[in-house]
Amino acid sequence: MKKFMLGMIIFAIAGTWLLAGSDNLPESREATLVETTSPTEVMVRAAGIGHHDPKGLFKHPDPKVMNQRAEVDAMKSGFPKNPE
Questions:
Q1: Angle (CA) 65 17 53, round 5°
Q2: What three-state secondary structure class fits 65?
Q3: 3-state helix vs strand vs coil in the chain, percent to 5
Q4: 11-61 pLDDT, tens per residue?
Q5: Average pLDDT of the chain to the nearest whole number
Q6: Is the distance from CB of 63 to CB of 81 less than 8 angstroms?
Q7: Which helix (H) or strand (E) holds 78?
Q8: Is the pLDDT of residue 3 over 80?
């Protein structure tokens, strides 16, 4: 019984760890390096995809929500920031 419980705890921890990491990935994954002025300063052009799930049959997607989500996705798809 102890081995079973230990296995379930390890499985639960590993499952939450894997699911938590997948939320940080971008949907678009499109970024191009435009300009490098120094090793710590770069200019990146990134594309983002914004989704909005309207609640209801006849509701249209809100453009403000879609733009905000596209901006967040573009930031995620850009090059990684300086790890300092």
A1: 20
A2: helix
A3: 45, 20, 40
A4: 888 777 666 655 667 777 778 888 888 888 888 888 888 877 777 777 888
A5: 77
A6: no
A7: none
A8: yes
Residue from 23, 17, 22 nearest 9 by CA = 17
- CB 43, CB 35: distance < 8 Å: yes
CB 47 within 8 A of CB 30: yes
Tokens of 68: 């905000």
The one-letter amino acid at 81: K
- Are 64 and 71 within 8 A, CB to CB? no
pLDDT tens column, 22-31:
566 777 777 8
Residue identified by tokens 């300063």 is 41
Kindly tell me the sign of the dihedral angle through the C-alpha atoms of 20, 76, 67, 64.
Answer: positive
Distance CA 57, CA 14 (A): 38
Determine the Cα–Cα distance for residues 48 and 75; give it in Å rounded to an integer. 8
